[in-house]
From TrEMBL:
Its EC number is 2.7.13.3. Residues 243-459 form the Histidine kinase domain. It catalyses: ATP + protein L-histidine = ADP + protein N-phospho-L-histidine. GO terms for molecular function: ATP binding; phosphorelay sensor kinase activity. This is histidine kinase. PROSITE patterns: HAMP (PS50885), HIS_KIN (PS50109). Its main location: membrane. Residues 183-235 form the HAMP domain. The keyword Transcription regulation does not apply. CDD domains: HAMP, HATPase, HisKA. It comes from Aquisalibacillus elongatus. Pfam families: HAMP, HATPase_c, HisKA.
């Protein structure tokens, strides 16, 4: 429960609000209390001084009584005493607390402007001021003014109550915030968490549509995409394994079959030669396949390092063509090559050779007897383009998007005869892309195929 995100965020919010409230309360409370107390004291002293002024002008009993009557109607208490503290006139009954103040007042000398003589409003019942009555330079007595501290205390109590109400409101607000948070933040997070658990358990179809445009929405979309990719990856992997075992099994069946035949008694010497050459071909095919699979594994582990160097591209192309020429001659294929001789490219030569061999090998396999293959290199300021075109059987349009998938072949049975296992283009694509380039196939069924390889030009060669 305490681990719930909404509770954590809510509590944080709550603590923050309470802290702010406490701070505000403290500042307001002390300020208000001080102001209020100061005001009362100033008032008290001013009133006492006024009475004193009147009494200094008319120092007689009736004026004193008049002052007493005036204050009996106010919130204050006035007590007029002689110099010894004997009460002459009082507006309200003289309580023991008042008596105490009077006693200490007559013992302490005070200035002629009057003074606050009791200011402990928190602990005492009254605060008090004292003004000296002087007639012709002689001290005649004291005008003592008292104000009950209850009023100030009540006012501050009210303030405290208001802050309590605000506190309760804060708690309610926090609960609402927690509810809102849990709806808008936590519940989508819980959904995401459940979805990822589903993915972990191997559930294929994750649908996480939060209908939100914020970060959580895009997180949900990413998770959905990852789950689909993962699913696709799993399917691809199992297809891949099935294909591989098939690819390995077929040549092995041939090898085993022909080896059995050779071992039969009475086998003719020509047949032995024939069959052993088939065994050799199949074994070669197998070793090529295994080498390709190793390359693929490297691609998958991101260990497909390329070592680029400035290389005369046309020489690389020429050596590939020379290598493939016998195979081309077998099918009476002509190859036309156009390459700007001075062209220098920033490439990994053996890897690019592999790309060209894979593409030209495809062109050869899918060309008709006596056909023509062209290889054109063009060079712009920031790109090198290698275009290899054949006039062979072409590729159905709907197959083109899948050609670069590993082990993908169009006509499985026929390709098998011509030795393909559907890895050539996958490897070519990986190599070209790790050079920062791209590879594209354009084809028309019955007319021929063009493979376009674009490589970045690299820094200017010096
Ligand atoms: N020039 C082309 N003309 C017609 N079809 C082609 C051409 N190039 C590729 N293809 C088709 O694309 C498929 C995939 O090609 P890819 O080179 O990846 O595999 P492969 O040639 O069958 O086997 P591998 O190259 O691994 O020996 C081929 O099986 C073939 O059907
Ligand atoms: Mg191929």
């Amino acid at each position: 429960m305490m681990n719930k995100l909404s509770i954590k965020v809510g509590l944080l919010f709550f603590i923050f609000i309470v802290l702010v409230e406490l701070l505000l309360f403290f500042i307001l409370y002390t300020n208000l209390a001080n102001n209020q107390v100061d005001e009362v004291m100033d008032n008290l002293l001013a009133r006492g001084n006024t009475h004193r002024d009147v009494l200094e002008d008319h120092y007689n009993k009736s004026t004193m009584e008049h002052v007493g009557i005036m204050e009996s109607a106010s919130d204050f208490v006035v007590v007029i005493t002689d110099t010894n503290g004997n009460v002459i006139v009082n507006s309200n009954p003289v309580e023991p607390e008042i008596k105490q103040v009077i006693q200490s007042a007559v013992q302490q000398p005070i200035s002629s402007d009057g003074e606050i003589i009791e200011e402990k409003w928190k602990t005492k019942k009254y605060i008090a001021s004292d003004s000296l009555i002087k007639v012709d330079g002689e001290i005649k007595g004291h005008v003592l003014m008292f104000a009950e501290t209850n009023k100030v205390k009540n006012m501050l109590l009210q303030l405290g109550n208001q802050f309590k109400i605000i506190g309760i409101l804060t708690i309610i607000l926090t609960i609402i915030t927690i509810l809102i948070l849990s709806k808008f933040i936590t519940s989508p997070l819980i959904k995401i968490k459940e979805a990822t658990e589903q993915i972990y358990k191997g559930n294929k179809q994750i649908k996480l549509n939060l209908k939100r445009n914020d970060e959580l929405g895009s997180l949900a979309k990413t998770i959905t995409r990852i789950s689909h990719d993962l699913d696709q990856l799993k399917t691809e992997r199992s297809e891949f394994l099935t294909n591989i075992s098939h690819e390995l099994r077929t040549p092995l069946t041939y090898i085993k079959g022909y080896a059995d035949i050779i071992n039969r008694p009475n086998i003719k010497i020509e047949d032995t030669k024939n069959y052993s050459s088939i065994i050799k071909d199949e074994a070669e095919q197998l070793s090529i396949l295994i080498k390709n699979l190793f390359d693929l594994a490297k691609v998958d582990q991101n260990k497909f390092a390329i070592n680029q160097e400035w290389t005369p591209l046309c020489e690389v192309i020429q050596s590939v063509i020379n290598r493939l020429r016998p195979a081309f001659n077998d099918k009476n294929l002509t190859i036309e090559e156009h390459c700007p001789k001075s062209l220098v490219a920033f490439i990994d030569p053996p890897r690019i050779q592999q790309v060209l061999i894979n593409i030209l090998d495809n062109a050869k396999k899918h060309s008709f007897e006596g056909g023509k293959i062209t290889l054109n290199v063009s060079d712009t300021s920031n790109e090198i383009e290698i275009l290899i075109t054949d006039e062979g059987e072409g590729i159905p349009e709907e197959e083109i998007p899948y050609l670069f998938n590993r082990l993908y072949r169009i006509d499985k049975s026929r390709s098998r005869l011509s030795g393909g296992s559907g890895i050539g283009l996958t490897i070519a694509k990986e190599i070209v892309e790790s050079h920062g380039g791209s590879i594209k196939i354009v084809s028309e069924l019955g007319k021929g195929t063009s493979v376009k390889v674009n490589l970045p030009r690299g820094e200017k060669y010096v």
